[in-house]
Amino acid sequence: MRATAGRSFSSRRRIPQGTRDRKKIGPSGHPVKEAGGLSDRRIFVSRRLPEAVLAPLRSLGTVEVWPEETVPPPREVLLEAAARARAMLTLITDRIDAEMIERAESLAIIANMAVGYNNIDVAAARRRGIWVTNTPDVLTETTADLVMALLLAAMRRLPQAERALRERKWQGWSPFDFVGLDVHGKRLGIFGMGRIGRAVARRARGFDMEILYHNRRRLPEAVERGIPARYVDFAALVQESDVLVILAPYAPELYHRFNREVLYGMKRGAVLIVASRGGIVDEAALVEVLRAGHLAAAGLDVFETEPIPPDHPLLTVENAVLLPHIGSATVETRLKMAERAVDNIVRVLTGRPPRDPVDADGP
Q1: Which CATH superfamily is domain 140-322 in?
Q2: Which of the residues 41, 47, 198, 277 is marked catalytic?
Q3: What is the pLDDT of residue 70?
Q4: Which of 160, 162, 159, 151 is nearest to 299 (CA)?
Q5: Could you say which of 203, 306, 312, 355 is catalytic?
Q6: Biased-composition ranges for Basic residues (predicted)?
Q7: What was the pLDDT predicted at 3?
Q8: Superfamily name with CATH number, domain 17-136+332-349
Q9: Measured between alpha carbons, how far is 229 from 8 in angstroms, rounded to an integer?
């Protein structure tokens, strides 16, 4: 059923030219566009969301919702939305680039329903006085739960065992059928010790794991002691970890940071978990390293191209556990993320700064 209210995003009525330069200065010198009248306020939502979540937007203007839940809007729809809307609620799969932002005549905010925002050209938005927001905090614990589930699945070979059972291939108990690796007592390396990294570390302590980490900025010593965790340089993290979890937000300088050389530099028999953003790992190199048996297993919830292409070689690697980017996928958390994105839009369109502005230089 189509979830749009009012109008579809098909007509081409333009926002009056005079609205584009009405700005005031927000926190840290960030320019903010004035809200304008109700007739100016078209709010584009790039996926179907529950009506209860969208309700606060209804009184602020015309809400135009892309009618699909799983299929993203094509580029031409996003281009039109950027040109006409006062606010856009986007997902991480919606690429909002400089060309789209330059077409924005009255756009005041792009509210991304994700903690990451590398799908948006934040610097271009800032130049145009457009707020960009994300949804931090609300998905930290849920994503950490998923990371531990992925770690356990990869190390204990749970998908392989479950698949064999369903395919009627289990012939009975055998001493070395479906054997995996112990989790307890292992050395866990965390690349990116932000909120989610610290939440994963807390869970790993319940498995009596030793925690190493590498970060752009070292944590205060009191925080390290409280986890407890030991800061190491990148080389030591790679060489010493039994399990290495990638949780750093994507940045251009991290593209393929885990390349063939780094992956072969990991312990033989180690496990790699990727749960932040695709592109940090060279997936072709990972396929090679897994097939060669240098790594025991890998678990990925994110990929360089999403959805993952049907002919991607990772799909044929038996010791890779692959999930369709479900780190925050619980009913409670997805609702909180949507509500947070809506709240940021409401704040901007009622003349207040948003709760969750992002910085052009990243988190």
Answers
A1: NAD(P)-binding Rossmann-like Domain (3.40.50.720)
A2: 277
A3: 86
A4: 151
A5: 306
A6: 10-25
A7: 41
A8: NAD(P)-binding Rossmann-like Domain (3.40.50.720)
A9: 52
